[in-house]
Amino acid sequence: MKKEQALKTKKAKQEPLLRHIKRNWHLYAFLVIPIAYYIIFRYIPMFGNIIAFRRYRAGSSIFGDEWSGLKYFKQFMGDQSFWRAFKNTLTLNFSYLLVRFPATLIFALLLNEIKCLPWKKFVQTVSYLPHFISMVIVAGMVKELLSMNGPINKLLESMGKEAISFISLPQWFPTIFVGSGIWQGLGWGTILYLAAIAGISPSLYEAATVDGANRFKRVWHITLPCILPTITTLLILDIGGLVGSGGAFEKVFLLYNPMTYETSDIVSTYVYRMGVGSGNYSYATAVGLFEGIINLVLLLTANIISKKTTESGLW
After folding, report:
1. Which pLDDT score, from 0 to 100, does residue 245 have?
2. DSSP 47
3. What is the pLDDT of residue 6?
4. DSSP code of 221?
5. Are 100 and 248 spatial neighbours (Cβ–Cβ below 8 Å)?
6. Is-contact 220 250, C-beta < 8 A?
7. Cβ contact 23:29 at 8 Å
């Protein structure tokens, strides 16, 4: 009897959903392409991680020929080049986060305070445009600006100083990486903050104004607390990607060279050289899998800390 009742209850819950899908099938059809994308390009390739534990030879089985266990994990754990890339990944990502996160939030707050609508739209447009420039073009612009005959070195020479080979000196790469990232992503990073601020009730600001609160106090006591869930969510996602270097791969790959490996070589470029460059696919897969596990641990840790401190998180 209990089983029959459970089946009836289950059918009763499913029927409204099925009717809703049939009635709005044209809307659900839009989900087909993104779902297919994630299945084909995100989930199915996960099966390829098996070659981190098996020896893979080009032209043989895609899942490897023989079981190797933790051989490749032990191999990269003792590789100084990997630990250099791991340290550089943390350094570059953390430096970028340390500058970009507060800069984006402050810029969004400043944009929100602009009362002249045409000027506000102009500033937003100018700050958004770099995001749509191809990374290849950005890298080319950076190289031209920082070349020995570029405008920056010409300015230094006009001031009586010697030209600096920025692109060839490892100590300059973190500054180039962070600076170009801020220029390209500052405006685009304000979109979510501005959307969250737009959802704040104007009556809160009106009440604060009546009570004598100035602009700074209204921002500190109303705007920031109201958008705290958005700030927390974005910070958790950023912390979860501190070890991840996939987003930085294209820029680093276009800007770095053997002379700057000391500070520019990151995990994803290291994986590229070991896998595509040297053909050691099992070793490269093991490194990539290790990177993914570290990212997952950081994401879970950041979410747990956020739930305990601010009572908001991703889940």
Report:
1. 59
2. G
3. 59
4. I
5. no
6. no
7. no
Residue 300's identity, in one-letter code, is L
Q: Could you report the per-residue pLDDT of 78-126, keeping only the tens digit for each? A: 999 999 999 999 899 999 999 999 999 999 999 998 888 899 999 999 9
Residue 54 dihedral angles phi and psi, to the nearest 5°: -130, 150
- How confident is the model over 148-204, as pLDDT tens digits? 888 999 999 999 889 899 999 999 999 999 999 999 999 998 999 999 998 898 898
Instruction: Identify the residue whose tokens are 């100084």.
Output: 80
What three-state secondary structure class fits 54?
A: strand
Cβ–Cβ under 8 Å, residues 84 and 273:
no
Helix, strand, coil percent values for the chain (each to nearest 5) = 75, 0, 20
Measured CA angle at 105 (ends 101, 108), to 5 deg: 140
Amino acid at 278: S
What's 280's DSSP letter?
Answer: -
What's the CA gap between 307 and 302, in Å, rounded? 9
What are the two backbone dihedrals, phi and then psi, of residue 111, each rounded to the nearest 5 degrees? Answer: -60, -40
Q: Which DSSP state fits 55?
A: E
